[in-house]
Write a structure and sequence with these properties.
Helix content is 43%, strand content 11%. The protein has eight helices and seven strands. It has helices at 17-35, 93-105, 118-125, 135-138, 156-166, 186-207, 218-234, 237-253; strands at residues 46-49, 57-59, 75-77, 111-115, 144-147, 171-174, 178-183. Strands 3-2-1-4-7-6-5 form a seven-stranded mixed sheet, sandwiched between helices. The radius of gyration is 18 Å and the shape is globular. The two termini are 13 Å apart. Bound molecules: zinc ion.
Length: 257
């Protein structure tokens, strides 16, 4: 990221430049999710893994709305969601369990975003799950794992079943609940979530309309999936997308920059 939402002077002395940059980008991501209308008041998390072999993460303090998250008030937690540094804010280890399970099993995933938007939750409730007949839905062909709902809180015995459902994928549809997406960076994760959210919005609208759908052949769906997976993996596409969305948010909120 080449912009910061708070003056550099707020950087705590024990925080290195790399961690501060991640904190700034993650705070922007919280604001962006809220700006898009995808937040769920004080609930849910976006987690980002700090560089290095240790499983240390940045996550929102429990009790704050997403637009109240700042680079400095993000908590540093371990894989169990317990605080690693002093903070006046509380952690929410029970809420972090979903993130903990994914991060603990997948070294290739450095950011996890979990949402319950109305559209995504509606699709997650349908037996068929995502359809693949619109521009965004076609890009999700074969890319979603589906996990059955076992209750509000993720207990230890459910973790292995959830990871089986995710397998080597990056999108986990939580049936009767919402979605969790994970990628190797914050920008890539946000870009993937955008695709999922847009697919859900279009599917909800299309299924509320009369008339037959034009069904895409699997071959076309696979081409869409392969191309978008390659763009996320190998290009700077997602970072450009994320930075552009952050600029748009600041311009529309009048927060300058
Ligand atoms: Zn949830």
């Amino acid at each position: 990221m080449n912009r910061q939402i708070e003056p550099v002077m707020l950087k705590p002395t024990q925080c290195n430049d790399q961690e501060w940059a991640l904190r700034c980008e993650l705070a922007e991501c919280y604001h962006l999710i809220d700006y898009m209308g995808w937040s769920e008041t004080i609930f849910n998390h976006i987690s980002a893994r700090l560089p290095g072999p240790a499983h240390h993460y940045l996550v929102n303090p429990f009790g704050l709305n997403y637009d109240e998250v700042t680079p400095a008030n993000l908590l540093k937690v371990d894989l169990d969601g317990a605080k690693l540094e002093e903070s006046t804010y509380e952690a929410n280890p029970a809420g972090f369990a979903l993130h903990s399970a994914i991060h603990g099993a997948r070294d290739d995933i450095h950011c996890v975003i979990h949402t319950h938007t109305t559209e995504v939750s509606a699709v997650a409730q349908k037996k068929r799950g995502f359809s693949h007949n619109d521009f965004y839905g076609a890009q999700l062909f074969g890319r979603c794992g589906y996990h059955s709902f076992e209750g509000i809180t993720l207990f230890a015995d459910e973790k292995s079943r959830m990871l089986d459902s995710l397998s080597d994928k990056h999108i986990l549809v939580l049936r009767n609940h919402g979605v969790a997406v994970g990628e190797s960076s914050i920008a890539k994760t946000f870009f993937l979530l955008w695709t999922v959210q847009r697919a859900a919005e279009i599917q909800c609208k299309a299924e509320s309309m009369h008339g037959e759908d034009v069904i895409l052949p699997d071959e076309i769906r696979q081409k869409c999936t392969d191309l978008t997976a390659m763009l996320i993996r190998d290009s700077g596409f997602a970072q450009k997308f994320f930075n552009g969305m952050v600029r748009k948010m600041h311009a529309n909120k009048g927060t300058g920059g």
